[in-house]
Amino acid sequence: MAEEQNRQRQFVSFTFYRVEPAWRRLRAEERAEGKHEFCGVVEEYAEKLIVLSYSTMGTRADCDFMLWRIGYELEPIQAMAAKLLATRLGHYLTTPHSYLAMTKHSIYLKGHTHEGQADARGRIVPGKHRFLFVYPFVKTRDWYRLPVEARQEMMNEHIRVGHKYPRVKLNTTYSFGLDDQEFVVAFETDYPADFLDLVMELRESEASRHTLRDTPIFTCVHGTINEVLNLLGG
């Protein structure tokens, strides 16, 4: 049974790219060829993975776009990353931020389901909303020393607050032992103001006292890979 559940759980990768200024000084033909080659790799791996592209132009100073990749095996994510950097555009890219996680059904959601939620096997079904807000998350060690009942009570409050914002969809993924953070959370919505209000209200919750780190935060705007790359300039 455990092996079956592990096969159903997904690897989730959030990779943020920054294009070097030298890219924008290339001839238009070279930039077009580089983007075409990069798009070809994305389209190739879209047959093996869920691949969503987002622009961070104008929302972050340290990165320009992000690829959200979801799959049942890690190897295609790794192979795709290598192939992207081998393209002509890839020669001008750095990756200032990259987060790896897996899906896992939350222990605090027993008997609790709602539309769009990852199922009990830990499967993410992205809704392709216009905006995605992503950040790594780490709780204090004291949180894990609390009785399960105390943690559940605080998370129940957390869940009640979330239900007040039905237009914001939460995807929680787990990084314990895989990456530096404990979780990566990704909120999908078409209404950024709803997300802002949700985060402000959650700051007042009891569970918030046990947050050690929840930055950096990335505001990402969804688009096709062609649309996202065209925003790079040229």
List the helices and strands and how they pair.
Blueprint: H1 2-8, E1 11-19, H2 28-45, E2 50-55, E3 65-71, H3 75-85, E4 93-102, E5 131-139, H4 141-145, H5 148-163, E6 168-174, E7 183-189, H6 192-202, E8 211-213, E9 218-222, H7 225-230
Antiparallel strand pairs: 1-3, 1-4, 2-3, 2-9, 5-7, 5-8, 5-9, 6-7
Can you tell me about this structure?
The protein is of the alpha+beta class and 234 residues long. The chain has two domains: 2-102 and 221-230, 2-Layer Sandwich (Alpha-Beta Plaits); 123-219, Alpha-Beta Plaits, CATH 3.30.70.1030. The chain has helices spanning 2-8, 28-45, 75-85, 141-145, 148-163, 192-202, 225-230, and strands at 11-19, 50-55, 65-71, 93-102, 131-139, 168-174, 183-189, 211-213, 218-222. α2 (28-45) runs antiparallel to α3. The longest helix is centred in the N-terminal third of the chain and has 18 residues, at 28-45. It is elongated, with a radius of gyration of 19 Å. The model has no long low-confidence stretch (mean pLDDT 92).
